[in-house]
Amino acid sequence: MTPWTQRCIRQADCILIVGLGEQEPTVGELERMLENTAVRALKQLILLHKEDGPTPSRTVEWLNMRSWCSGHLHLCCPRRIFSRKRLPKLLEMYERVCQKPPDRHSDFSRLARILTGNSIALVLGGGGARGCSQVGIIRAMHEAGIPIDMVGGTSIGSFMGALYAEERNANRMRNRAVRWAKEMTNVLKKMLDLTYPITSMFSGSAFNRSINKIFEDKQIEDLWIPYFTITTDITASAMRVHTDGSLWRYCRASMSLSSYLPPLCDPKDGHLLMDGGYINNLPADVARSMGAKVVIAIDVGSQDETDLTNYGDSLSGWWLLWKRLNPWAAKVKVLGMAEIQSRLAYVCCVRQLEVVKNSEYCEYIRPPIDRYGTLEFGKFNEIAEVGYQHGKTLFELWNRNGVIDNILKDRPIDNVAKTRSSDVTCPNTTFTDLAEIVSRIEPAKTLAVDG
């Protein structure tokens, strides 16, 4: 390592370790020297892939051999990146390339936004079949020219988000989502999956197979776009954020509604994982803590009925039964036991949703899908079209009002590291931040002298 290289490394804010994804993940000599050097800069692993080559795989092997890397990105590269032309030919080729307008949806544009703190995150909330509308909104986002640099989700949002992070194409995402939705409408498979209801009504085998058929053995690390999903850890009574591991398992865990499906045992530590909607149904704050400048959050959760009957200090079930059986009696709106339990489970989530909606970094979207039920997957096309039309209208309004321009505008470099503590519920403090706090020298105090 030359003195100049050492100086560059010492002064660097971020060091990119670039490798070819299709090659063996061996550690190079420069990497070994870098590992043994006391450098506090962030180190990102960048894996290059040919645009006509296979999709990313074995990323975990690259990361395991480089535990000192703080993150990784996959870049789909055009053929010219791998060309072996002479320098004059290369200069001529890139002069032509630079004359074209930049593609904000390209992986290189995403890399630039992430490195400069200008990334745009898409967060998809839970809500059962209403999540089909997210497919339409994502299509409208593409048409409006809004790039997506990070994807996160809860429950059905984790599933839809994983599809997009793997495909990066709204049409291919839709085709795979339609196939899964048809599986969800198969009554025979549901009947065969019924079990003695000690923990849940269904064993979960049929549901597992439906998700596994979509994602197979894909790992979260192998997705094109950085991705996370939320689950509720009922063993540790905590929120879990999953950014690595088996994709289908953590999607399934994030979609595990209590009493319908059994908790999923985390293959890493055996903890019981349930639907992430119980603790954070729209995790925009998590995306913010991961470095997103702007978070576009799509909420498809159910809206609770608030116009309920005031029945006084006590309530007779016989009186309610009479009201329901008597066709001439005035109708009353009273919550059942299941509804009460459901609302209690989501109390924390509702409060968190209000915090997200009122935050400065979040663009909150809620399509008009309240008339659709949680399990109406048979209406996939209709719900997706509602989402598309709503997104198309909304993004046209954003375009006229300058919202899209503001989203795409780079923020000043001085503001990249400034994240208010109120913006995130789980701040992501790095070692460099802690070192700066510890080593900060307070200014000398001026003593007041009486005259």
TrEMBL record:
It comes from the Eukaryota. The keyword Transferase does not apply. One of its GO terms (molecular function) is phosphatidylcholine lysophospholipase activity. It is a single-pass membrane protein. InterPro entries: Acyl_Trfase/lysoPLipase, NTE, NTE1_P-loop_dom, PNPLA_dom. Pfam families: NTE_Ploop (PF24179), Patatin (PF01734). A motif (GXGXXG) lies at residues 126-131. It is found in: Membrane. This is Patatin like phospholipase domain containing 7 1 isoform 1. One of its GO terms (biological process) is lipid catabolic process. Its main location: membrane. Coiled coil: none annotated. GO terms for cellular component: endoplasmic reticulum; membrane. Keywords: Hydrolase, Lipid degradation, Lipid metabolism, Membrane, Transmembrane, Transmembrane helix. CDD domains: Pat_PNPLA6_PNPLA7. Residues 122-288 form the PNPLA domain. A motif (DGA/G) lies at residues 275-277. A motif (GXSXG) lies at residues 153-157. Belongs to the NTE family. The active site is at S155 (nucleophile), D275 (proton acceptor).
